[in-house]
Automatic annotation (TrEMBL), chains A, B, C, D:
Species this chain originates from: Shewanella surugensis
Name this protein carries in UniProt: AMP nucleosidase
Gene for this chain: ppnN
Stretches assigned to the Pyrimidine/purine nucleotide 5'-monophosphate nucleosidase C-terminal domain: 335-454
GO molecular function terms noted in the UniProt entry: AMP nucleosidase activity; pyrimidine-5'-nucleotide nucleosidase activity
Catalytic reaction equation(s): AMP + H2O = D-ribose 5-phosphate + adenine
Keywords from the named record: Glycosidase, Hydrolase
Claim: Hydrolase is one of the keywords in the record: yes
Entry-linked InterPro entries: LOG_fam (IPR031100), LOG_family_nucleotidases (IPR052341), PpnN (IPR049788), PpnN-like_sf (IPR037153), PpnN_C (IPR021826), PpnN_N (IPR027820)
Pfam families for the chain: DUF4478, Lysine_decarbox, PpnN_C
Start and end residues of each Pyrimidine/purine nucleotide 5'-monophosphate nucleosidase N-terminal domain: 4-109
Amino acid sequence: MIVRISPKGSMEQLSQLEVARLKQNAQSELYQLYRNCSLAVLASGIKCDNSQKLFNQFEGFKINVLQKERGIKIELINPPTAAFVDGKIIASIQEHLFSVLRDIIYLNDIIYLNDKFAQLDHIDLTHSDHITNSVFDILRNAHAMPLFDPNIVVCWGGHSINNTEFQYTKAVGHELGLRELDICTGCGPGAMEGPMKGATVGHAKQQVNHARYIGLTEPNIIAAEPPNHIVNELVILPDIEKRLEAFVRLGHGFIIFPGGAGTTEELLYLLGILLHKDNQDLPFPLILTGPKESADYFTHVDAFIGATLGKEAQDKYQIIIDNPAEVAMIQKEGMETIKKFRKKIGDSYQYHWTLKINPEFQFPFQPTHENMAKLDLHFQSDKAKLAANLRQAFSGIVAGNVKMETVNSIEKQGPFQLKGDPKLMILMDTLLSAFVEQQRMKLAGTLYVPCYDITHGH
Amino acid sequence: MIVRISPKGSMEQLSQLEVARLKQNAQSELYQLYRNCSLAVLASGIKCDNSQKLFNQFEGFKINVLQKERGIKIELINPPTAAFVDGKIIASIQEHLFSVLRDIIYLNDIIYLNDKFAQLDHIDLTHSDHITNSVFDILRNAHAMPLFDPNIVVCWGGHSINNTEFQYTKAVGHELGLRELDICTGCGPGAMEGPMKGATVGHAKQQVNHARYIGLTEPNIIAAEPPNHIVNELVILPDIEKRLEAFVRLGHGFIIFPGGAGTTEELLYLLGILLHKDNQDLPFPLILTGPKESADYFTHVDAFIGATLGKEAQDKYQIIIDNPAEVAMIQKEGMETIKKFRKKIGDSYQYHWTLKINPEFQFPFQPTHENMAKLDLHFQSDKAKLAANLRQAFSGIVAGNVKMETVNSIEKQGPFQLKGDPKLMILMDTLLSAFVEQQRMKLAGTLYVPCYDITHGH
Amino acid sequence: MIVRISPKGSMEQLSQLEVARLKQNAQSELYQLYRNCSLAVLASGIKCDNSQKLFNQFEGFKINVLQKERGIKIELINPPTAAFVDGKIIASIQEHLFSVLRDIIYLNDIIYLNDKFAQLDHIDLTHSDHITNSVFDILRNAHAMPLFDPNIVVCWGGHSINNTEFQYTKAVGHELGLRELDICTGCGPGAMEGPMKGATVGHAKQQVNHARYIGLTEPNIIAAEPPNHIVNELVILPDIEKRLEAFVRLGHGFIIFPGGAGTTEELLYLLGILLHKDNQDLPFPLILTGPKESADYFTHVDAFIGATLGKEAQDKYQIIIDNPAEVAMIQKEGMETIKKFRKKIGDSYQYHWTLKINPEFQFPFQPTHENMAKLDLHFQSDKAKLAANLRQAFSGIVAGNVKMETVNSIEKQGPFQLKGDPKLMILMDTLLSAFVEQQRMKLAGTLYVPCYDITHGH
Amino acid sequence: MIVRISPKGSMEQLSQLEVARLKQNAQSELYQLYRNCSLAVLASGIKCDNSQKLFNQFEGFKINVLQKERGIKIELINPPTAAFVDGKIIASIQEHLFSVLRDIIYLNDIIYLNDKFAQLDHIDLTHSDHITNSVFDILRNAHAMPLFDPNIVVCWGGHSINNTEFQYTKAVGHELGLRELDICTGCGPGAMEGPMKGATVGHAKQQVNHARYIGLTEPNIIAAEPPNHIVNELVILPDIEKRLEAFVRLGHGFIIFPGGAGTTEELLYLLGILLHKDNQDLPFPLILTGPKESADYFTHVDAFIGATLGKEAQDKYQIIIDNPAEVAMIQKEGMETIKKFRKKIGDSYQYHWTLKINPEFQFPFQPTHENMAKLDLHFQSDKAKLAANLRQAFSGIVAGNVKMETVNSIEKQGPFQLKGDPKLMILMDTLLSAFVEQQRMKLAGTLYVPCYDITHGH
């Protein structure tokens, strides 16, 4: 089966050089990256969160970029049929395919640009600034920053939440949609899809014709969490840290639904940034919310934050149980506050330049046994520092749960050894045990074997 | 509480004369009509299908049309709060308010125009043609006929269907939306809302930004079946018969979900028209569909049609059980057939002029005891005539179930007496008993006392 | 030669009744009116200001309205070839053809509506109000009142001005265009085309993509002054008086270039209205302007106004010689004043309801010998009344110069006899003689024989 | 005087790095380039074709890029007042300012990208391909390639033509506009402005709301030939050769009006390319045209081409005297031919990839005395090669006439010495003498002293 797809969305013209670089070629890393991201998008209707299995199933899939009289076309050879309705590709998948193409080509360029610019400017830019500018460049190239007023609510949470929690994320999305707010998530199912689905109906009631459902992803995660079909703006960032930075600079309000270790990692990332002294006064609406059945979850998380990062950190968020309308109202009011604040200080409505992000939140953490064992898990007065270390610990646990490479190394070398202050160790142990009990560490129905040992002694 | 609303949608300017005519005035019929329709729209979020109760609850509601520098505004005094989100009116209600204003003003004019035109033209137009032209004028004035290709699927069915059936109407709507088809219904809840709700998500996946969710209603029904909030084009026709004509001339494809006596009336209306010899060759996709749990319902209905109107009538529709995708595919294919056919014969894509509708389907039937008793309910070779008579019988039963005036007259004079061919009487009795048993005649949980006696003797 | 034209612009759908009414039919007045207006539009590229000659030349021209699957088409039989470029109709003519169709159909209706509404409303509306509302209805039906801020400058002046004056009208138009003002004129050549042509380039420099070039005309004048090709909104009013009312209610600022008796009539119309006591405080930017070569013209006109209507009338306008930028700046500033004023009093930005127009300016004056002889041409304290009488006198002279019927009756009965106050008679004589001398009464090169005798005695 | 300008057009967001690079800084070459191009745009209303004088007059002019909450703003310090109407910047200048900003930033990047890509791809791309791709990148970044059908007519000719010729270029533009063709020129006055001005009225008649008036320029020429105010798409290419390549790849049809040595250079450029064997079959509508008063000019040019490049070259163009409509008709028909041809071979409608341009037409020619003396000016069988050499000769003469640096070196070292085949030398001499006689080498009224000696001997 061979299908040719015309562009839908923002990319329409490629140069001959760009097309040449994407030529189908078993040896070309760029082609493989492009092919795999495209396959992930095409397979997004298929229920399967195991990338390897997916890639095996569609081994015969190939993709070509063709230059035609009216611009480029994409040729798909043996694509998954789930991407089509009556033989016609679903429009959102069609657009996502061209978003992939746009971003893959751009990511290829940006790496070299960065180096060059530093030399060119002969000015004292820290590498941190370069990362921030690169994230900006990628988002701009994706037309992800139209000149609207502050309006984007980022929704985070687990991708395999239970049905009560899923219905709740839809209800929150509905209330956000009724207030004409746009939604930005990590692209996948669960708490990433629910708010978008709910917002769709809310936006319809408010006759918002050009609502934005932004999905931010990265090449390693797109296959496991493919963009749901409501996403109408897909952007692929080069790695997890740039994706996180894109979330916090592009988004205006933040909502965290229940999740597992990954969601805790994200919360720690946010708190670590917000605890930076330069960020003290920035308006930053952050709400933790879920249905009343999930109240316990937030009690555990809040207790952990209180005991480790203290009241100062707890003051950065509100917990709201079972009240979608209130969540949405607070976010809506937050938009006004942000608008006034940024206008006053002259920061952009579209990209939160002022937010200070320390390099330890920008550079990737490699979750090896060695790095995990070396983590400094002791109480300390620099709460931002502690948040950074804790984030790395949870990041390692997430990898140990799901990332193929890390899982393999745990099979060989045994669980990670986490050491630190005994009191802190007990706090972590308690929180993680609660997640295990609530079946948040693995898909429901499977037995969870922890990938870590927490050493309570000194 | 006083709120002023600016226009959203197609009406923006009124003349001073038009504004004067709508002046708040207890004696003015036009003002009362305008006020009540507006109230129905504003109360659409409130669960209540009893108009009288609704009107009592909002006795203090008043409405004024104001002329301002940028066009008109509507002033609402004591409106239902359910129409607002955080003090701001919901956009769809805002638009519906102005649709009401537009149509009330226009309906006021059209009555006089019709008479005048007949005299003016000195040409031999039957009154039937005048009705057809009036319906066209109203739809055109409402901008309900943009120059698109055939694309509108009319969905009919009960307003109080069970949850399984409701989910099914959503699933069908989703598949229609995936095929980029627009939805037209009678405005209210149940089978009128489900297809729109499902289509919203389907359209989002296909990135259809300007999908149409058309609601056709009339002044006497708008309070009982207020436009759901997904409706983005609301048109008020002057009476039930013109509303039915608007459905069949504006719509291209037709789907009937389970319902009660009212839905049967609608099916008989359609079949009566389609059996007209002039309409034999018109492509007219008509599908009866429901979930497998509702298969029995269609068995009964089909048996009744077969036994009364014969195979010729049965050939006019397909019954599809539990297959939303197939329903949508057939409708989609039907659009192509209609397009080719109308192009060939030079009929409009927007308004089905060619469809022949006999006057007995255009003039209203008054369901008095006398008229019901006089109905000619015998088998006859003119199947279209029989369909017209049966439709009037079911129309009377619907009125006897829900229309205040008719209910009162039954309380005084006892049930309607339906007489006719004994075999035909048994068929009707069987069908109606099945509806009673399936709780389709009244809202679930209430005991149904039939408003009719079927006399099986001669 | 047979050509079929698709709609461009606002009309796309007609009912079968409307199409039937326009059927080609030698006996049908409506068809003849429609045919002749359409022919005038089609012949607009041909230099010819003699309607009769034009109609003779294209005797074989016929027009049909066809109903097709995508709406109506217009079929032209033997149209003037000047309307086409390489066999394709010029877009502005195409749109004008559909404007004619739209307005002819509407004018046919409005006559009857007016009568009906009066009976219907049982309220005490003077006939004057009805006229004002009808003009509104026609403009609204033509979509001539989009919701913009005050922006329309009406330009009046002769249709056969000399080249220096024509270049000056272009220069003024250019400056108006640079200030993003829209232009409204009487449709034809000369001072009606120049400002539009100049504005086209001004708008291009300001990248105004949707500038409005509004042409207001009426059935008896459209053939003599066909819409120039820059007009992008053409509206046909039913008669001269409604056309004048449309100008003053739709327009915001007013510019009068040099002209003849007709332009004097228009000035007297404006001054007569502005002298009404209810209109004293209305902001109404009115400028008389021309190149320095035409300074004399304005000296004569101003002297006449001063001597007849007094300083009060002179205060209503400014005379600006040879300064296009200043003219445009004053108009631009006037828009702000009008905006604030109308906002304060709640009058529409689109239609100047508040402006009081007395019935003597709304009802047509029939220029018979008897009516002309009866005119009360004496000084009087009611300057508005005097202005009305003078306007009628000049109106009669215009008719005597160009209107076929009036010209004929003068040939038979001799010139009009104008009598009145000797001093006033001398003033009129002086002004008219200056016009004759400046060759403003007839096209250059033809000898002018006055159509009037001014009796200086009592 | 300090003014802040908001974006109009396609650029709205800059990164902090990009803003930093443009910081006002006397030492920064990039800032100086940016400032001077911006000044040229702002001074475009001032009649002055001497860049040095212009820069001296506005020595105090400075420009800053500011980052604000809604994107960037440009701050102008002491800008020329001619850029403003009533204190408000003219929209086209406003857009041109942001085009300059967009292109300066991009040109800065592109230089480095090119080098990098060559290394990156490890593929055998000639440098010629890189140039072609860079030109594409610049045009794409400027949004100069919307997905329209072939529609762009490039108009070339002198910038100081006489009034008869100027009126003729307007008449041709008017006919092109009537045929809904877009215009692309070199930005400046004369034959570059006339076709745009005429097209403006033609487009208005055809109600073309989004007509394109594309101006292509380069940093060294923008001050001498600033974009006229009708240009609504301005693109700055890095140098003359890339600008020429942009013309021939972006444009579809070509018209050459009378001009001097520069216009001859352009004609030789085109013929040199069209004579390449790979370009034999490409449809390429090329018309030389002027009013009947300029017929002689074309006789001389045609004779020169015939005698040097032969009939094969003469067959590449048509000469049309005094027939604007025919010129436009041929261009319009050419668009259809191009459309069909590119569709057949799969080349883009937007960018003429297939056109083969040899490196000698891509690399700049430095007009030193040495290079001029070395030129191989002999007849030869490779006509494309001869065209290239002749182009360089004329290019040198243009530089000797107007380019400050070259003029100076001629003052010091005397005129260029052109040597070659005696017959060829006589042909050049004859043509150039005709230009001198027709006052095409210098502005009217100044005496022309040739910058070259043609040596007729061997």
